[in-house]
């Protein structure tokens, strides 16, 4: 309702009451105006009534919601199910145009505004999380792997002679397939073991650059967030190598926004060397459904090139999800989640350490990994590989999701490349282990329940191993008794044979 509507309403209801309602509406509109003027995430989260008012105001700016609209094109925002329309808040046209995912749509001003605001808020949050010098970003309706592929395809036009991507090994299929899908040959750099940690082999990276030649290399593809005992790549040092050899650098920061350490690595890498773009998942960092990612960087022109590489229009759902989430949380709410995650990491670490020592295992020392932890499974590994994988099954059937058990010697072939010791990020890690991660949104009760169920599983396995050992001990005693009896019979027969021969000769 505008001012004229409220004035008209005063003829029906007491002007004092109408003015009070008008002031209440203006308080909602004030928040919306500040958002549009500043383009930053509000400090305090909005209530649902303000958020829904804002979304409704945007939606009625799209042509499919115009009263009396007459659409005669092939794509006019028609939706058969009203439930589907409500699910999307009647944003039907999506975002972007055929030539640029960030472009404005003439017949979808509301959706276009939603897209611009979302990108602006996400940029603000990335700065808040630690990458202060980031210049541009955009939300893309693809998960991390395909978003990395989009970055590689954009670089193809800049480096037409390139055919290789230098990639410090991380055993995650989508990372590897993102390079294959883009049409490049991954050059796998094995990690080096330092204590319990698997770290970037910088000498091997530089030696491979010199061997292949910089012009034949599309980029270095590094990783921040990962499963322990692997730790984030030495991003700063890799950025310096890339700058020295004039090679692009793409960083897979999948769930690194929630980690100040991962974000600091990217910020420092851009300061001392070269980082062209870094990619992060929406669902892992912002507690929204799977299906979106953020491509960000320090060169505004290059990020715009990536957005123009996306073919066709795109779904607005990931943008809408993250916009609603950030406006609901506010920057203070998101900072609280980041703080809570750090606290949960310390709590999970202490609880796993205590439990592991009770079973003569140990928490691997991986201080450079700020999210993931690993506990040795030597008591299972010494028994059999089957016992290790059985623990994973036991946890899953007890509704523990996300925990990973990593046996020794697993082999996986991806697009013709064979990875030995797959899932452990190296050919031969010294022991089998169990992974658990403290990700954003984890609560104390999640940790307590996980520890309780893991303890029960380990106790069950220990009892089973003891029973099998006892049974094998009884079997070995029976075997020994049988062997002694057999030896005694053989000795008796031998003596009987000797006596018989002596009687015959006499």
Automatic annotation (TrEMBL):
GO molecular function, one term: tRNA binding
Keywords carried by this UniProt record: Cytoplasm, Protein biosynthesis, Pyridoxal phosphate, RNA-binding, Selenium, Transferase, tRNA-binding
The keyword Chloroplast is assigned to this record: no
Cofactor(s) the protein needs: pyridoxal 5'-phosphate
UniProt binding sites for tRNA: 271, 398, 463
Binding site for pyridoxal 5'-phosphate: 75
Primary location group: cytoplasm
Segments of skewed composition (Basic and acidic residues): 464-481
Site (May act as a substrate filter by repelling compounds with a negatively charged alpha-carboxylate): 74
Residues annotated as binding substrate: 97-98, 105, 313
Listed EC numbers: 2.9.1.2
Gene3D superfamilies recorded: Type I PLP-dependent aspartate aminotransferase-like (Major domain)
InterPro entries: Peroxidases_heam-ligand_BS, PyrdxlP-dep_Trfase, PyrdxlP-dep_Trfase_major, Sec-tRNA_Se_transferase, SepSecS/SepCysS
Stretches the record annotates as Disordered: 464-483
Single biological process term from Gene Ontology: selenocysteine incorporation
Enzyme class: transferase
N6-(pyridoxal phosphate)lysine: residues carrying this PTM: 284
UniProt pathway annotation: Aminoacyl-tRNA biosynthesis; selenocysteinyl-tRNA(Sec) biosynthesis; selenocysteinyl-tRNA(Sec) from L-seryl-tRNA(Sec) (archaeal/eukaryal route): step 2/2
Catalytic activity: O-phospho-L-seryl-tRNA(Sec) + selenophosphate + H2O = L-selenocysteinyl-tRNA(Sec) + 2 phosphate
Subcellular location: Cytoplasm
Entry GO CC: cytoplasm
Similarity comment: Belongs to the SepSecS family.
Quaternary structure (record): Homotetramer formed by a catalytic dimer and a non-catalytic dimer serving as a binding platform that orients tRNASec for catalysis. Each tetramer binds the CCA ends of two tRNAs which point to the active sites of the catalytic dimer.
Function: Converts O-phosphoseryl-tRNA(Sec) to selenocysteinyl-tRNA(Sec) required for selenoprotein biosynthesis.
Stated name of the protein: O-phosphoseryl-tRNA(Sec) selenium transferase
